[in-house]
Amino acid sequence: MVLSLTQKVDAANIGLMVFSCIVAFILPFEVFLFSYGVLGPLHYLTEIGWLHKKGYFTTGKYDYIFLAFLAFGITLGFLGLSDFFNEVSTGLIYLGFLAALAMVTIKDNSLKAVCIILLVFSTLFIGDSPLYQIFFAVYLPTIIHVFIFTALFIIYGALKNKSPLGFVSVIVFAICAFSFFYFPAGYQPLASMEYIQQSYRGFAMLNQMMLNLFGFTELKGFNEASINAIFNSQSGYMVMRFVAFAYTYHYLNWFSKTSIIQWHKVPKSTLAIVVVLWVASILIYAYDYMVGLKWLFLLSFLHVLLEFPLNYRSVIGIGQEIKGLFVRKQTAISK
Hints:
Blueprint: H1 5-26, H2 28-53, H3 63-78, H4 83-87, H5 89-105, H6 109-126, H7 130-161, H8 164-179, H9 193-200, H10 204-213, H11 224-231, H12 234-256, H13 258-261, H14 268-287, H15 289-295, H16 297-334
Helix pairs in contact: 1-2, 1-8, 1-12, 2-12, 2-14, 2-16, 3-5, 3-16, 5-6, 5-7, 5-16, 7-8, 7-12, 7-16, 10-11, 11-12, 14-15
């Protein structure tokens, strides 16, 4: 049997899921640091270029400028260059997420602008909510972006292409994700724990919040107890394996679809710039991981915010495909 291109990609993705699961289980911290520092920059650079060619999946030609402005403000806050943007950074992520919905569903620019203004005012009433802070500042740009939205892409692709292998990949993805919590095991680091803790500290808050979310701990504040729970406990290894899998497969999934979405079809000069920036980023990460995080923070957050409209398109597409299934079923029954 000759497989179609879509079927080949689905089969490859199943293999990549299993591969990501295995390496994340064996070396969770090391695999994450490698994936984020090596695969991540190339993903940001290539996806932003592809999104630009696709008009960012918004209804307005220049909608993306607002999202880019928000990403720039968040970066100024993260780097400590602006106290104002540091204080409102969570609100900027909130604005980007909900404004993207308006950019996808509303064509009239005036109505779109009114919606965004109302969203700005709404931040005055919810800014003190702990759930608001945790969801938008911690979960949305990290694990929701790389795991939940990736799952939605997989589901949408399976429904749209009506591919049996696509549906199998959805099941395999879920099994891989949940396996880390059902097969606890020790962890023998390949790198020194001092290097791992130093390099990973920019992400440690995510692990702490997830440990609390899953009921493993009740950590309050980031202290010695938090460090021990994240880096030296069975539950900490479970969470880290899940995070490493989610990020690694998120990147590999993007590259596996190259033959379908054709993100590499760009002028040679553009491709050369991408390669130079990618290599420079890898070298910076190798020199000092925290410096690398600062170097690529804008690019990282820019790709997260610019992808929000595509995320909404996927959700809408899933709804339309499911609705189509019911319509076809009802039509068949009526006949």
